[in-house]
């Protein structure tokens, strides 16, 4: 989790650096009075690297993803809970004494 | 709702505790959360925690919930003196508590003194006329005495006030099925499906009731609900697969005399279901596979 966080921070810093260099490039072009067609190649590569870092961090930092399928093993309802509110006690289990000597000792 | 992972976790913990490894407290917490009725194990391991004063005090305030859980388990296993001791301990800690009063009335029920239990519940209801659990316990007392008609009448009155209680609807449906009043049971299951449409077991129970009622339309609706059960459970519900084969066979038997204008919308559905069943049986019970194939062949031949 610490590694993912650090990678995420690095990715954001890379994106910030790419933005800064694009602004610098634009001001340079204003001095030389040329058209601003797009950021230079290096900045585009920097943007892609920053994107990859940030995406990786976003997927690893939050932790385990829960399943959405209704029929996956985590979500598949196998049996309903016993109706505890309507439980009755005069069933045949009365005849089986489970263990003798069960006592609350205090 | 008990999911598959939770069920396997519960069984694993149960095996672990049975064979002497630790983990009794986690087992009890899981059993309480999933609301399973394993009273003999809960009683045995709960008492082992409660009798050990060190383990008991380490649980802090959860100790009293454990007392309640062990008291109910003791009543279920008919160890009434254990239940009495637990309730006394709870009463010392929480005098004048409605929850403890309810446990005492349940103890009277377990002893078999129905009139005393009934009187205790009525007095508790006078103080708080909208206590849902007390209403339900009264219905349980009527059911335990065998007055099913009184139980039905009270349960209906309860459901007129608290219409959203799906446990009560389920209980009413089961009572109707036990009395073979299938139309009323179908109504209750419809209410359950409306409130919880993603639980496949309600669809399955509804389809079973419709299949039991019989008649061509009911069989066709039953086939649709078996299919929705298979859809919701990812094909892992064997009972629904069997249901489809039986429904198709019954429908084709009924419709044999008439002209089949509306031929099956899905003619290969029963064969798909049979194939899935055979695959499942090969995996889990391969010695019964021959019995299964001969049964399915009879269903298909007679159709």
From TrEMBL, chain A:
One of its GO terms (cellular component) is EMC complex. The keyword Endoplasmic reticulum applies. The chain crosses the membrane at residues 42-61. Keywords: Endoplasmic reticulum, Membrane, Transmembrane, Transmembrane helix. It is found in: Endoplasmic reticulum membrane. Its main location: endoplasmic reticulum. InterPro entries: MMgT. GO terms for molecular function: inorganic cation transmembrane transporter activity. It is a multi-pass membrane protein. Component of the ER membrane protein complex (EMC). Belongs to the membrane magnesium transporter (TC 1.A.67) family. PANTHER family: ER MEMBRANE PROTEIN COMPLEX SUBUNIT 5, PTHR21181. This is Membrane magnesium transporter. It comes from Linum tenue.
UniProtKB/TrEMBL annotation, chain B:
It is found in: Endoplasmic reticulum membrane. SUPFAM superfamilies: TPR-like. Keywords: Endoplasmic reticulum, Membrane, Repeat, TPR repeat. InterPro entries: EMC2-like, TPR-like_helical_dom_sf, TPR_EMC2. It is a peripheral membrane protein. Coiled coil: none annotated. Pfam families: TPR_EMC2. Residues 100-209 form the EMC2 TPR-like domain. The keyword Ribosomal protein does not apply. Gene3D superfamilies: Tetratricopeptide repeat domain. One of its GO terms (cellular component) is EMC complex. Component of the ER membrane protein complex (EMC). Belongs to the EMC2 family. Part of the endoplasmic reticulum membrane protein complex (EMC) that enables the energy-independent insertion into endoplasmic reticulum membranes of newly synthesized membrane proteins. This is ER membrane protein complex subunit 2. It comes from Linum tenue. The lineage of its organism: Eukaryota, Viridiplantae, Streptophyta, Embryophyta, Tracheophyta.
């Amino acid at each position: 989790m610490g590694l993912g966080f650090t990678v995420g921070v690095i990715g954001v810093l890379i994106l910030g650096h790419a933005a800064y260099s694009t602004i610098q490039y634009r001001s340079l072009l204003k001095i030389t009075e040329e058209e601003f067609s797009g950021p230079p190649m290096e900045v585009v590569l920097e943007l892609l690297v920053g994107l990859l870092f940030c995406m990786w961090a976003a997927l690893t930092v939050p932790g385990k993803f829960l399943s959405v399928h209704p029929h996956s093993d985590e979500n598949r309802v196998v049996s309903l809970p016993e109706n505890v509110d309507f439980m009755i006690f005069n069933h045949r289990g009365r005849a089986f004494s489970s263990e003798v000597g069960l006592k609350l000792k205090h | 709702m008990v999911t598959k992972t939770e069920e396997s976790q519960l069984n694993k913990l149960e095996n672990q505790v049975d064979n002497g490894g630790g983990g009794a407290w986690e087992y009890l917490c899981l059993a309480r959360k999933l609301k399973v009725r394993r009273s003999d194990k809960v009683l045995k391991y709960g008492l082992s925690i409660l009798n050990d004063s060190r383990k008991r005090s380490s649980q802090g305030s959860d100790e009293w919930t454990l007392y309640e859980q062990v008291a109910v388990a003791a009543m279920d296993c008919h160890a009434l003196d254990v239940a009495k001791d637990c309730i006394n301990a709870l009463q010392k800690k929480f005098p004048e508590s409605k929850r403890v009063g309810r446990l005492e009335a349940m103890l009277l029920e377990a002893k078999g003194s129905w009139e005393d239990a009934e009187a205790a519940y009525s007095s508790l209801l006078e103080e708080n006329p909208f206590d849902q659990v007390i209403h339900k316990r009264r219905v349980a007392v009527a059911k335990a005495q065998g007055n099913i008609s009184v139980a039905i009448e009270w349960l209906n009155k309860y459901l007129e006030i608290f219409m959203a209680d799906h446990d009560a609807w389920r209980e009413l449906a089961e009572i109707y099925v036990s009395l073979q009043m299938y139309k009323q049971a179908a109504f209750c299951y419809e209410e359950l499906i409306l409130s919880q449409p993603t639980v496949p077991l309600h669809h399955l129970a509804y389809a079973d009731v419709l299949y039991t009622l019989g008649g061509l339309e009911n069989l066709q609706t039953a086939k649709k609900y078996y299919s929705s059960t298979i859809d919701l459970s990812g094909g892992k519900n064997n009972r629904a697969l069997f249901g489809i084969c039986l429904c198709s066979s019954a429908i084709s038997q009924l419709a044999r005399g008439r002209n089949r204008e509306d031929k099956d919308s899905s003619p290969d559905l029963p064969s798909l279901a049979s194939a899935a069943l055979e695959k499942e049986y090969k995996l889990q019970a391969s010695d019964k596979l021959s019995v299964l194939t001969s049964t399915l062949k009879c269903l298909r031949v007679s159709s």
